[in-house]
Amino acid sequence: MAVHLMRELDNLKKVSLTLAAMVEDNLRLAMKAVVERDEPLARKVIEADIEIDRQEVEVEEECLKILALYQPVAHDLRFIVAMLKINHDLERIGDLAVNIGERAVALAQRPSPTRDFHIQRLAEIAQTMVSRSLDALINQDAKLAREVWLSDNEVNQLNRDLLNEVEEEIERDPSQLHALLALTLISRTLERIADHATNISKGVIYMIDGDIVRHRSKFFRKKFAAEQAQGSGEPS
Amino acid sequence: MAVHLMRELDNLKKVSLTLAAMVEDNLRLAMKAVVERDEPLARKVIEADIEIDRQEVEVEEECLKILALYQPVAHDLRFIVAMLKINHDLERIGDLAVNIGERAVALAQRPSPTRDFHIQRLAEIAQTMVSRSLDALINQDAKLAREVWLSDNEVNQLNRDLLNEVEEEIERDPSQLHALLALTLISRTLERIADHATNISKGVIYMIDGDIVRHRSKFFRKKFAAEQAQGSGEPS
């Protein structure tokens, strides 16, 4: 059993990392389309999401298969539940890359704003957070996962700064309104992508030591322990 | 075993519905804070998220407990995996309600825009989608879940219309810029909430008949069947 389960868990990692690579690629291309005002590339990004959705389903079915066939417990069970959650986050990042692609189409069709503010810096940090959260997952590195989590503050601050600066720019030159609004929506979307990378990191931390979740649910653990003591929680 | 498992699944539904009710309430209060420019209420919404996060953990631990103790298969397993995903969506809706609360604070601190466009209509549809997706979950109603999914188009259209109208309004009267930008961000957030309600509905449909997922993964099912035929996919 153990060898088969290990092989299946390795396979699960493999299909999940394939999904992660697809999502990372598509996000990178979406930002390239924004920066280079490349409408055909933006449309490719939007289309690529079908494959990403398909891969997400494959990861989920792999999880279900392992749960059904091997009925893992303890660390292995927590690993699979974490993979299910991470899978969901990856798929959402994929959707957000599509949103950025749609904004890239809008940007390409109108006169560009005179500057892009620090949207590229924001994109770099968000992309780095996504790729580092996945490194943390592969290497089961809780320290790296915590670092990703901390970067989220910087992204939130950059997003707030960008919104303020864009407001000032619109006041200065209202003719750029449409393009600048598109930039604010891209900034907001990048901030949400960083949130998902943070979620993935939290999932990795939980997978490794379960600390945070345990900390947050003392009440439930007590209740569970009491139920087990009474025998009502045992399989029969 | 069956009776105990049934009782646990009922309990899982109960804790999940408690979470759903908390999220629905907080979203409703967040929109009330927006409409009535009520800063203290907005701050309450932001604080209430701690309890929502705690309840999310309780649902997840209930899922883990059932998986570990009862090792459910087939429909029960799919039900629990769907609950895990729905749990994640509910928690995200909770976070988005906090974002709306933050915008409500910003709105309350500045002069109001002369009108709110159709943000309340958008909020009503998004809230209805959330509550109907949960009704579909409780009553295992795939038809209702499909209706929720369809409503998502209306929300997307309303969000697009609002963005366009707000742009025109800013051009007409740039002094309202700050408040109107807050409105566009709320509109976008409501659109994302509707996306999560759509996800929940997809989860319900998958839970009931698995159609969509099966449809999307013929390749994988064939591969799985072939593995089973070779014996490599069997527990040993």
Could you give the topology of this structure?
The structure is a homodimer of 236-residue chains.
Chain A: H1 2-35, H2 39-70, H3 74-108, H4 119-138, H5 142-172, H6 177-209, H7 211-216, H8 218-230
Helix pairs in contact in A: 1-2, 1-3, 1-4, 2-3, 3-6, 4-5, 4-6, 5-6
Count helical runs of chain A.
8
Work out the oligomeric state of the chains in this entry.
homodimer
Number of domains of chain A: 1
Q: Largest interface, by Cβ-Cβ below 8 angstroms: which chains and how many residues each?
A: A-B, 49 and 49 residues
What is the chain-wise order of helices and strands of chain A? HHHHHHHH
What is the rounded Rg of chain A? 21 Å
At the fold tier of CATH, the topology name of chain A is: Methane Monooxygenase Hydroxylase, Chain G, domain 1
Strand content of chain A: under 5%
Describe it:
Two copies of one chain form a homodimer. Chain A is mainly alpha-helical and 236 residues long. Chain A has helices spanning 2-35, 39-70, 74-108, 119-138, 142-172, 177-209, 211-216, 218-230. Chain A has a single domain, classed as Phosphate transport system protein phou homolog 2, domain 2 (Methane Monooxygenase Hydroxylase, Chain G, domain 1, Up-down Bundle). Helix content of chain A is 86%, strand content 0%. Chain A is elongated and about 65 Å long. The first copy, chain A, starts with a helix and ends in a 6-residue tail after the last helix. Mean pLDDT of chain A is 86; it is low at 211-225 and 231-236. Chains A and B meet through helix 2, helix 3, helix 5, helix 6 and helix 8 of A and helix 2, helix 3, helix 5, helix 6 and helix 8 of B.
